[in-house]
Sequence to fold (176 residues):
Amino acid sequence: MKFKKLVSRIDLYVAGFIQKRIQNEKLGWILSRVNRGEVFFLVLIPFIAHYSKLSEIPFLILITGIFTFLNDRLVLFIKKAISRKRPLISVMGKTDANPDMKHSFPSAHAANSMIVAVILVSGFGYPEVLFLFSFLAGIGRLLTLHHFVSDIIGGWILGFFFGTLGVICKNFFFIN
Fold:
């Protein structure tokens, strides 16, 4: 229980610091536009075009899609089971009618971006710089107060796990 209290104190401290010293309307607007899956996909297109053989693109999409989907289902289950309020609600007191916007742990953005990075880097030989995008996705979610630090770390851990399963599956079923 001491560890849980420590994590909670750190989460609240960081969220309060961001709210008071970093967060502003313009930054929130920019990050909410940039920190979307569609934007990450648009960034990936040049990487895919440069680093992939045309014949491996369907396998890349299949493996990444399957494990991202499975992770997303697990993340939704965990979010509803834990029902931790987002910093926007618990720190800033905002409300949102969307029931999916009320739950914070773990971060699906962090998890899904990590899955993509792990599969592309470890499974398909893409450059390690793709991990930077997962890092930026997590930081963006922190700065917009959609997640606490532990939500992001939890998402990265889940994403690393599912990404590693994706690489194992790719190596087992699809011979290079």
Summary: Residues 126 and 149 are 27 Å apart (CA to CA). The longest helix spans residues 57-82. The chain has eight helices and no strands.
